[in-house]
Amino acid sequence: MPIIEKWGTTLAVRIPEALVRSLELREGDQVALRAEGDGIAVSLNELLMEDSYPEAFRNARGTVGPDTDLES
């Protein structure tokens, strides 16, 4: 079970390898954290508001279907 550790002047949690693989996380990925009940939810799908438009696309994953309207 992961524990909270001191890393420099901040607190950190190491993510177990199985979770890293299941979420396809990579070094440098940005994630959104939010309190959920008595836990913490980690999401790759929520882009932070301060992300610039190109940065949001750089962090996006997946493909766009041929019927997706990219002009509007």
Walk me through this protein's architecture.
By secondary structure, the protein is of the alpha+beta class. Helices cover 19% and strands 25% of the residues. It contains 2 helices and 4 strands; from the N terminus they run ββαββα. A two-stranded antiparallel ribbon has the order 1-2. Strands 3-4 form a two-stranded antiparallel ribbon.
Describe how the helices and strands are arranged:
Layout: E1 4-7, E2 10-13, H1 17-23, E3 32-36, E4 39-43, H2 53-59
Structural class: alpha+beta
Output the number of helix runs.
2
Q: Low-confidence segments, ≥5 residues, pLDDT <50?
A: none
Major β-sheet profile: 2 strands, antiparallel
Strand content: 25-35%
- Helical content stands at 10-25%
Mean pLDDT value: 78
What's this model, at a glance?
The chain is of the alpha+beta class. It is 19% helix and 25% strand. The termini are far apart.
Short key terms for the protein model shown above:
two-stranded antiparallel ribbon; elongated; 72 residues; alpha+beta; 4 strands; two-stranded antiparallel sheet
